[in-house]
Amino acid sequence: MTTVNGLRLAYRGFVTGLAAGYVWLATAMLLGALLHDDALQPLRPLAALILPAAGGSASASFVLGFGLVQLAAATIGMCFSYFFGRFFTIRPTLAVAAPCFALLAWALFAASAGAGEGLGQMGLAAAPLVATVAYGLLLGAGLPLRGDVLRRPDAVNQFPDQASG
Questions:
Q1: Residue from 75, 144, 82, 149 nearest 108 by CA
Q2: Under a CB-based contact definition with an 8 Å cutoff, are residues 136 and 102 in contact?
Q3: Which residue, among 142, 15, 134, 123, has the nearest Cα to 75 in the 3D structure?
Q4: Nearest-angstrom CA–CA distance, 162 and 165
Q5: Which of 89, 102, 114, 123 has its C-alpha lying 20 to 30 A from 3's C-alpha?
Q6: Which residues pair with 4 in a beta bridge?
Q7: How do residues 71-85 score in pLDDT, each as one tens digit?
Q8: Where do the structural domains in the chain lie, given as residue ranges?
């Protein structure tokens, strides 16, 4: 049996991933507004993956892009935390590993999505790349270290009188 409480770690990764997803959205939309005069520009290719018939409408891009980013952010946060976060014992290694993991996930997603029409340059766009680094930094800062999620010896049998009867 492992000494790390994996469910607690996965839950913290899920919640931290959701919070970091908001950072991704805010960063990408701010850079989209500054670089392209369109805050929804980073979300349009994401919405087109889900519903190509949306035609780039502002409301569909926002809702579908927002949903996809939050779903991916929570999943990536939970996976990173559960499978890799249990091994980090000091904050600097976690702070470096989380953005690297986020960039790897973005590169894999962008490469697979790039096979579609007009989406080939999505992985190299500045706004999503910077937003992914910001996401990774918040993920690395918000996840617990190994010592924070270790099982306590007294927590194994919290109700000793019920175990015997």
A1: 75
A2: yes
A3: 15
A4: 5
A5: 102
A6: 150
A7: 999 999 999 998 888
A8: 6-149
H or E stretch covering 31: helix 6-36
120: tokens are 């080939």
- Exposure string for 134-153, b = 16+ CB within 10 A, e = fewer: bbbbbbbebbbebeebbeee
Q: Token pair 């999943």 is at which residue? A: 75
**Taking a C-beta distance cutoff of 8 angstroms, is the pair 147, 94 a contact?**
no
Contact between 138 and 24 under an 8 Å Cβ cutoff? The reply is: no
Whose structure tokens read 């996965």? 10
Q: Is 103 exposed, middle or buried (0-12, 13-18, 19+ CB in 10 A)?
A: middle
Tens of each residue's pLDDT in the chain, 165 residues: 467 788 888 899 999 999 999 999 999 999 999 999 999 989 888 888 888 876 668 888 899 999 999 999 999 999 999 888 888 888 899 999 999 999 999 988 888 876 655 555 676 789 999 999 999 999 999 998 887 888 776 555 454 454 444
In the chain, the amino acid numbered 126 is A
For residue 57, give Cα distances in angstroms to 1, 38, 60, 95.
51, 12, 6, 37
